Predict the structure.
Amino acid sequence: MDKKESGRKILVDADACPVKDIILRVAKKHSLPVIFFIDTSHVLEEEDATVVIIGKGKDAVDFALVNRTEKDDIVVTQDYGLAAMVLARGACAVHPGGMVYTKNNMDRLLMERHVNAKIRRAGGRHSGPSRRNHLDDSRFEQELERLCTTS
């Protein structure tokens, strides 16, 4: 049974996703369907993927994506909380910078997110992510390829 028949798909938290073109190219190579999830404040037209538009609301896109996620799907997201939820459903999750989320790194990532949120609430600042470069794209494509060829 090929991957398309098995129902495996790539779901993308697409509101601020910088790697849409890479996702589409890799998905086409592996005959995997792609579903982009966006909220109503974004516009995305893509003939090689399904675009699901979700009403604005705190975490509305995240919950819609999680509800469509099945075991062995691949989810692309920058959101650690969303990644944790899809891992719990038996799916794979990868950051657009190429980091694969795992049960082994999730606790640390969620703790960092919590600490950074506390700093912001207290009026403090912390350094954000570094600027994207071609190495990020290369790492992401390599990890997405690997995820598409393993189950």
